[in-house]
Amino acid sequence: MRGHGACHWSMPSNRGLIKPLSPEEEALAEVLTLLIEDYEEKHHPLPSVSPNESLNALMEERGLKHKDIWPVLGNKGAATEVLSGRRSISKAQAKRLAEFFHVPVDLFI
User: Fold this and answer.
1) Per-residue pLDDT tens for 73-95?
2) What is the CATH number of domain 51-108?
């Protein structure tokens, strides 16, 4: 697959498929998935973001304020320090944040 447009035509559409995929079709889908993932990692890598930046972005995206998040982080002081970047997110806080936002815990570690 070469160039940015190649993946658009190479991925078969599964809309309208009623029967399950054959073993060969499953193997092809797996190979195409690996090729697309590899291409995206090489040509469109996701930027590295700190746990605090992830939290701030999720809060902004959802219109949340300090008062909305401090119960998840434990108290107002901890929330202030985490949101300002003066304190790292603990593993316990990361787990609670992941549950609160319904995202992988890795975003906060």
Assistant:
1) 999 999 999 999 899 999 999 99
2) 1.10.260.40
